[in-house]
Amino acid sequence: MTISATIAVGAVASILFIWIGYPLAIGLVSLVVRRPLQPDYVRSRHRRVSLVIATRDTQSAIAARVANALDTEHPAELLEVIVAVDSGAPLQGSPAFDNRDARVRVVAGDEPEGKAGALKCGSPGGKPAMY
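The structure corresponding to this sequence follows.
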C-alpha cells in the first residue's frame, strides 16, 4: 500500500469515527451513566444570583438600572446587585443611592480602567472601595 493510500484510508477512518463512532460511544455512556437533569430555569430559581452593573453613567441612570434589576421575579433574598463604577465616581451622598435596598452594593475602582476594570472591582476577588 502506498503512502497516499494509507493517508486516504486514515482520513476516511477518522471521518467515519467522528460521524459514527463518537456518537455511538457517547450514546452508550449515556445509557450507563444516568443522572437526572433539571432545566436551567428550575435550578436558577433556587440559586443566589449576583448581578454586576459595570457603569460610568450618571447617578440617575444608574438608579434606573438598579431599580430595573431589582424588579425581577427572582426571590428577593437570593438576589444581589453590585454596581461597579469605573474610576471611583463620587456616589456617596447621592440622592440616587440614599436609602437604597440592602441587596445593592456599590463599589468603585481606584483608577479609570474601563469596563474590564469595573467588572474586576465588582467581582469577589477584586479590591473594591465600598460606599
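Helices lie at 3-32, 40-44, 59-70, 114-122.
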